[in-house]
Amino acid sequence: MRLHARPAVQPTPAERMRSIVLAAHSMTVVCDGLEHEIRDLDGAGALGRVHLHDPDEESGPDQHVPRLPMRLELTDIAPAPVRDRVRARVTLTGLVAAPYRTDSAESVCMRLDQAVLEGPAGRDYVTFRQLEVARTDPLAVSEASMLHHLADAHPELVTLLLRLVEPAATRGLVRALPLALDRYGITLRLESATGWRDVRLAFPTPVDDADQVGLQTHALLAAARRASHSHLPLV
What we know:
The protein is of the alpha+beta class. It folds into two domains: 13-133, Pnp Oxidase, Chain A, CATH 2.30.110; 143-226, PNP-oxidase-like (Split barrel-like, Alpha-Beta Barrel), CATH 3.20.180.10. 23% of the residues lie in helices and 33% in strands. The chain has helices at 13-23, 128-133, 143-153, 155-161, 167-170, 213-226; strands spanning 27-31, 34-38, 50-53, 68-77, 86-96, 108-119, 122-126, 173-182, 185-192, 196-202. Strands 1, 2, 3, 4, 5, 6 and 7 form a seven-stranded mixed β-sheet that branches. Strands 8-9-10 form a three-stranded antiparallel β-sheet. The longest helix has 14 residues, at 213-226. The chain is elongated, with a radius of gyration of 20 Å.
Protein backbone atom coordinates (compact mmCIF):
# COMPACT_ATOMS: atom_id res chain seq x y z
CA MET A 1 0.00 0.00 0.00
CA ARG A 2 1.36 3.41 -0.97
CA LEU A 3 1.24 6.09 1.69
CA HIS A 4 0.68 9.65 0.50
CA ALA A 5 2.19 12.56 2.41
CA ARG A 6 -0.33 15.02 3.80
CA PRO A 7 -0.23 18.33 1.92
CA ALA A 8 1.42 21.15 3.83
CA VAL A 9 -1.03 23.52 5.52
CA GLN A 10 1.47 26.01 6.94
CA PRO A 11 5.01 27.25 6.30
CA THR A 12 7.97 25.38 7.73
CA PRO A 13 10.04 27.24 10.37
CA ALA A 14 12.69 27.91 7.71
CA GLU A 15 10.12 29.31 5.27
CA ARG A 16 8.59 31.44 8.01
CA MET A 17 11.99 32.75 9.05
CA ARG A 18 13.10 33.54 5.51
CA SER A 19 9.87 35.43 4.83
CA ILE A 20 10.26 37.48 8.03
CA VAL A 21 13.90 38.27 7.28
CA LEU A 22 13.27 39.30 3.68
CA ALA A 23 10.08 41.29 4.35
CA ALA A 24 11.34 43.10 7.45
CA HIS A 25 11.12 46.88 7.60
CA SER A 26 13.33 47.19 10.67
CA MET A 27 15.78 45.26 12.80
CA THR A 28 18.15 45.58 15.72
CA VAL A 29 21.85 44.92 15.15
CA VAL A 30 24.17 44.25 18.08
CA CYS A 31 27.86 44.22 17.19
CA ASP A 32 31.09 45.05 19.03
CA GLY A 33 29.12 46.07 22.12
CA LEU A 34 27.00 48.58 20.22
CA GLU A 35 23.28 48.33 19.47
CA HIS A 36 21.89 49.82 16.26
CA GLU A 37 18.18 50.27 15.50
CA ILE A 38 17.68 50.06 11.74
CA ARG A 39 14.18 51.31 10.93
CA ASP A 40 14.20 51.65 7.15
CA LEU A 41 15.39 48.67 5.14
CA ASP A 42 14.22 50.17 1.84
CA GLY A 43 12.17 47.11 0.92
CA ALA A 44 15.29 44.92 0.78
CA GLY A 45 14.73 43.26 4.14
CA ALA A 46 17.52 42.32 6.53
CA LEU A 47 19.36 40.45 3.77
CA GLY A 48 19.74 43.74 1.94
CA ARG A 49 22.06 44.86 4.75
CA VAL A 50 23.59 41.59 5.93
CA HIS A 51 24.70 38.75 3.67
CA LEU A 52 24.64 35.38 5.43
CA HIS A 53 27.39 32.81 4.85
CA ASP A 54 27.71 29.13 5.63
CA PRO A 55 29.27 28.69 9.11
CA ASP A 56 31.60 26.01 7.67
CA GLU A 57 32.81 28.27 4.88
CA GLU A 58 36.54 28.84 5.18
CA SER A 59 37.43 30.31 1.80
CA GLY A 60 37.62 33.99 0.92
CA PRO A 61 40.11 36.84 1.23
CA ASP A 62 39.12 37.64 4.83
CA GLN A 63 39.20 34.10 6.20
CA HIS A 64 42.13 34.94 8.52
CA VAL A 65 40.77 38.33 9.61
CA PRO A 66 39.68 38.48 13.27
CA ARG A 67 35.90 38.38 13.52
CA LEU A 68 33.43 40.03 15.84
CA PRO A 69 30.22 38.49 17.21
CA MET A 70 27.08 39.97 15.70
CA ARG A 71 23.39 39.49 16.44
CA LEU A 72 20.36 40.45 14.35
CA GLU A 73 16.95 40.69 16.02
CA LEU A 74 13.74 40.97 14.01
CA THR A 75 10.16 41.08 15.27
CA ASP A 76 7.17 40.05 13.19
CA ILE A 77 4.17 42.22 14.12
CA ALA A 78 0.57 41.42 13.17
CA PRO A 79 -0.90 44.05 10.81
CA ALA A 80 -4.32 43.94 12.50
CA PRO A 81 -4.78 45.47 15.98
CA VAL A 82 -5.09 42.12 17.77
CA ARG A 83 -4.10 41.43 21.35
CA ASP A 84 -0.42 40.58 21.62
CA ARG A 85 0.60 41.69 18.15
CA VAL A 86 4.00 39.97 18.19
CA ARG A 87 3.61 36.92 15.96
CA ALA A 88 7.24 35.79 16.00
CA ARG A 89 10.79 36.82 16.79
CA VAL A 90 13.87 35.95 14.74
CA THR A 91 17.41 36.02 16.11
CA LEU A 92 20.43 35.47 13.86
CA THR A 93 23.88 35.25 15.44
CA GLY A 94 27.26 34.89 13.82
CA LEU A 95 30.62 36.49 13.15
CA VAL A 96 31.59 39.45 10.95
CA ALA A 97 35.00 40.75 9.88
CA ALA A 98 34.19 44.35 10.80
CA PRO A 99 31.73 46.23 13.02
CA TYR A 100 28.37 47.11 11.55
CA ARG A 101 28.06 50.71 10.33
CA THR A 102 24.63 52.25 9.81
CA ASP A 103 26.07 54.85 7.45
CA SER A 104 27.48 52.24 5.07
CA ALA A 105 25.51 51.21 1.99
CA GLU A 106 27.54 48.01 1.62
CA SER A 107 26.20 44.67 2.81
CA VAL A 108 28.04 43.14 5.76
CA CYS A 109 29.02 39.47 5.41
CA MET A 110 28.10 37.42 8.46
CA ARG A 111 29.08 33.79 9.02
CA LEU A 112 25.87 32.44 10.48
CA ASP A 113 26.23 30.41 13.66
CA GLN A 114 22.63 30.14 14.83
CA ALA A 115 19.17 31.08 13.58
CA VAL A 116 16.23 30.92 15.99
CA LEU A 117 12.52 31.44 15.37
CA GLU A 118 10.36 32.02 18.45
CA GLY A 119 6.57 32.01 18.28
CA PRO A 120 3.46 30.87 20.13
CA ALA A 121 4.31 27.22 19.41
CA GLY A 122 7.79 27.51 20.90
CA ARG A 123 11.33 27.81 19.60
CA ASP A 124 12.74 26.40 16.36
CA TYR A 125 16.39 26.27 15.33
CA VAL A 126 16.99 26.64 11.60
CA THR A 127 20.24 25.67 9.89
CA PHE A 128 21.97 27.77 7.28
CA ARG A 129 21.18 25.17 4.63
CA GLN A 130 17.48 25.10 5.57
CA LEU A 131 17.32 28.88 5.43
CA GLU A 132 19.23 28.99 2.14
CA VAL A 133 16.88 26.61 0.29
CA ALA A 134 13.64 27.72 1.95
CA ARG A 135 11.09 29.42 -0.25
CA THR A 136 10.11 32.98 0.59
CA ASP A 137 6.34 33.21 0.88
CA PRO A 138 4.97 34.93 -2.25
CA LEU A 139 2.59 36.95 -0.04
CA ALA A 140 5.22 38.16 2.42
CA VAL A 141 5.47 41.73 1.14
CA SER A 142 1.74 42.13 0.37
CA GLU A 143 0.32 40.35 3.42
CA ALA A 144 -0.16 43.50 5.53
CA SER A 145 -2.14 45.38 2.89
CA MET A 146 -4.30 42.33 2.14
CA LEU A 147 -5.13 41.77 5.81
CA HIS A 148 -5.87 45.46 6.36
CA HIS A 149 -8.25 45.38 3.40
CA LEU A 150 -10.01 42.27 4.68
CA ALA A 151 -10.39 43.61 8.23
CA ASP A 152 -11.39 47.17 7.30
CA ALA A 153 -13.38 46.76 4.09
CA HIS A 154 -14.87 43.27 4.49
CA PRO A 155 -15.39 42.41 8.18
CA GLU A 156 -18.52 40.47 7.18
CA LEU A 157 -16.29 37.98 5.34
CA VAL A 158 -14.29 37.36 8.51
CA THR A 159 -17.58 36.61 10.26
CA LEU A 160 -18.53 34.25 7.45
CA LEU A 161 -15.23 32.38 7.74
CA LEU A 162 -16.07 31.64 11.36
CA ARG A 163 -18.51 29.03 10.06
CA LEU A 164 -15.45 26.94 9.23
CA VAL A 165 -14.44 26.92 12.89
CA GLU A 166 -15.79 24.38 15.34
CA PRO A 167 -18.42 25.87 17.70
CA ALA A 168 -16.36 25.26 20.86
CA ALA A 169 -13.71 27.68 19.62
CA THR A 170 -16.20 30.53 19.21
CA ARG A 171 -17.93 30.31 22.60
CA GLY A 172 -17.63 33.62 24.39
CA LEU A 173 -16.25 35.24 21.25
CA VAL A 174 -15.84 39.00 21.54
CA ARG A 175 -13.92 39.74 18.36
CA ALA A 176 -12.37 37.91 15.40
CA LEU A 177 -9.62 39.44 13.27
CA PRO A 178 -7.38 38.14 10.48
CA LEU A 179 -3.98 37.49 12.05
CA ALA A 180 -1.87 36.08 9.22
CA LEU A 181 -1.95 35.23 5.54
CA ASP A 182 0.48 33.06 3.63
CA ARG A 183 0.52 30.79 0.58
CA TYR A 184 -1.07 27.97 2.56
CA GLY A 185 -4.03 29.76 4.12
CA ILE A 186 -5.35 32.35 6.53
CA THR A 187 -5.17 32.47 10.33
CA LEU A 188 -7.86 34.12 12.42
CA ARG A 189 -7.42 35.32 15.99
CA LEU A 190 -10.49 34.71 18.13
CA GLU A 191 -10.60 36.95 21.19
CA SER A 192 -12.79 36.39 24.23
CA ALA A 193 -13.09 38.10 27.60
CA THR A 194 -10.62 35.64 29.11
CA GLY A 195 -8.02 35.32 26.36
CA TRP A 196 -7.55 34.41 22.73
CA ARG A 197 -6.82 31.52 20.41
CA ASP A 198 -5.71 31.23 16.80
CA VAL A 199 -7.36 29.03 14.19
CA ARG A 200 -5.94 28.28 10.78
CA LEU A 201 -8.01 27.81 7.64
CA ALA A 202 -6.06 26.12 4.87
CA PHE A 203 -6.57 27.06 1.23
CA PRO A 204 -7.74 24.18 -0.98
CA THR A 205 -4.52 24.68 -2.95
CA PRO A 206 -1.42 26.66 -1.89
CA VAL A 207 -0.91 29.81 -3.96
CA ASP A 208 2.17 30.60 -6.04
CA ASP A 209 1.62 34.36 -6.29
CA ALA A 210 -0.60 37.10 -4.90
CA ASP A 211 -2.96 37.00 -7.90
CA GLN A 212 -4.19 33.57 -6.81
CA VAL A 213 -5.26 34.64 -3.31
CA GLY A 214 -8.68 35.84 -4.44
CA LEU A 215 -9.59 32.50 -6.00
CA GLN A 216 -8.52 30.50 -2.94
CA THR A 217 -10.26 32.89 -0.55
CA HIS A 218 -13.47 32.61 -2.57
CA ALA A 219 -13.18 28.82 -2.27
CA LEU A 220 -13.00 29.15 1.53
CA LEU A 221 -15.98 31.52 1.54
CA ALA A 222 -17.98 29.14 -0.63
CA ALA A 223 -17.22 26.32 1.81
CA ALA A 224 -18.27 28.58 4.68
CA ARG A 225 -21.61 29.31 3.04
CA ARG A 226 -22.24 25.57 2.75
CA ALA A 227 -20.89 24.77 6.19
CA SER A 228 -22.71 23.16 9.04
CA HIS A 229 -21.16 23.73 12.45
CA SER A 230 -21.99 20.17 13.38
CA HIS A 231 -19.31 18.48 11.30
CA LEU A 232 -16.52 20.90 10.32
CA PRO A 233 -13.37 20.61 12.51
CA LEU A 234 -10.54 23.08 12.94
CA VAL A 235 -7.92 23.01 10.19
